[in-house]
What we know:
The complex is a heterodimer of chains A (105) and B (463).
Chain A (H helix, E strand, L loop, with lengths): L3 H15 L5 H32 L4 H30 L16
Helix pairs in contact in A: 1-2, 2-3
Chain B lengths: L8 H27 L10 H32 L6 H24 L2 H7 L17 H24 L4 H17 L9 H36 L3 H21 L13 H11 L2 H16 L8 H23 L4 H7 L3 H30 L7 H38 L6 H7 L1 H24 L6 H9 L1
Amino acid sequence: MLAPGLAFVVLLILYMKNRAHADPLAANHLSQTVGVSLAGGALILVIIALILVLGGFDSGYTWMIVILYFTFIHSSLILLGVAGLVKAMAGEHFRYPLIGRPFKP
Amino acid sequence: MQYQSQAVAKPYFIAAIGLFVGQILFGLIMGLQYVMGDFLFPEIPFNVARMVHTNLLIVWLLFGFMGAAYFLVPEEAERELHSPKLALALFWIFLIAGALTILGYLLVPYAGLAKMTGNHLLPTMGREFLEQPTITKLGIVVVALGFLYNIGVTILAGRKTVVNLVLLTGLVGLAVFFLFAFYNPENLVKDKFYWWWVVHLWVEGVWELILGSILAFVLLKVTGVDREVIEKWLYVIIAMALITGVIGTGHHFYWIGAPEYWQWWGSIFSAMEPIPFFMMTVFAFNMVNRRRREHPNQAAVLWALGTAVMAFLGAGVWGFLHTLAPVNYYTHGTQITAAHGHMAFYGAYVMIVLTIISYAMPILRGQKAGNRSAQVLEMWSFWFMTVSMVFITLFLTGAGILQVWMQRYSDAPMAFMVVQEKIELFYWMREVAGLVFLIGLIMYVWSFFVKGDERVVASAATA
Lengths: 105, 463
């Protein structure tokens, strides 16, 4: 939330570095998190772009929907991230609901 | 109940719930006054309803914190409370003083109340959230000192754990920072500056220590996870809360006439304030995920997890939304602030008090946990109140964004009351959500009276 771009770059480096030789649990978590970050990021950017194009930049209502949508989706993704982190700390596999990559534990 | 003196917590919890109901009723009255300006006027003017709504919140949370301390401290210190009689005497003093103050707000014009209570001798009245007559404030100090003495002696004479020491530190901080309510300089900048030392350093400082310790205590009990693990988490969480929250006070100094450097200090440190709440969420879910037992009080587990999530959203995310100085330049004092205030107070402090009540009340009534039917109703009340609070926050945020756009950001800004009329729909929707919240609260209160098969819970507890 504080520095999403920076956190994503760190995550990407970890993923590139470890995907080949990480143990299956770590590989799954890295792959899930990178996948969801990309899908979630796209979800945020594409939908916001659509709202702005359809609603126009000069409407207060457009900005209201953009800010509420961004806050809601971003918070939901953070809370899903917490769920994933808790599972990883417990040494358990996790698949993000709806947008997580399928995997075989 | 491990120690008989823990029973003094019960009247505190009952009073807290009673005052909570009062707070919500006045919230609904005020919510309606936003759209029907003369509703209940002149009997209950808007400013009085607002004062009662916010003051009741503070008073019932203090009752909740004190009840929590009286329940938790003997168990942690492994000894009876130093003086249960003192705890009960302070309860009645606080309740009567609180009730008289609220009646004073409702029955006497505020200026008359100030005159009647001798405010001119030591003027402290007339400031938001600190509207109480000076004599009530002195009463609060007496109650706080007696309470700290009772709790402090119990802890110092007994086992010292991280949970009860963090709780004590938070409670001492609460009492110390309240003393700034007596400092009322004529210079408005200084007045506002030190006013925040009470308000901010309570809710974004020492109260977080109280929140953390109560949450840690309940998680310790319901999950059976090792004390060492929970205590380490608590240390890190409160350290982050204080590191970010103390200098984060600067986010209130942006536009009050304080030096400009506060815009940097306030922005940087308060941007980090979500971190302890994020950690609290990870902590709560991690402990429940690693639990060693299935505690029969599932309602308490739900409240504990809910506290962490809602505190993160309300205090963390909604605080971050408008904390950076360039954003706050446009948003301060709008409905965005109200949205943040509602969800943060509910998530962090209302829910933690309801968590400890949910855990302790069955024990205080001689059961390990409430019967299944009571718990189901309580869990429904959790969802009703929590979901309606999410909607209250979303509607107020929507109203706030439009308010900023029309009143602050626009090249041709509209007048305050013109904008208020334009966002009326959001106030109506907030009022409907508030009614759903009240239904949830009624269900919550009702859950204490639901009868069921206590044997089912008892067998689950021994399983």
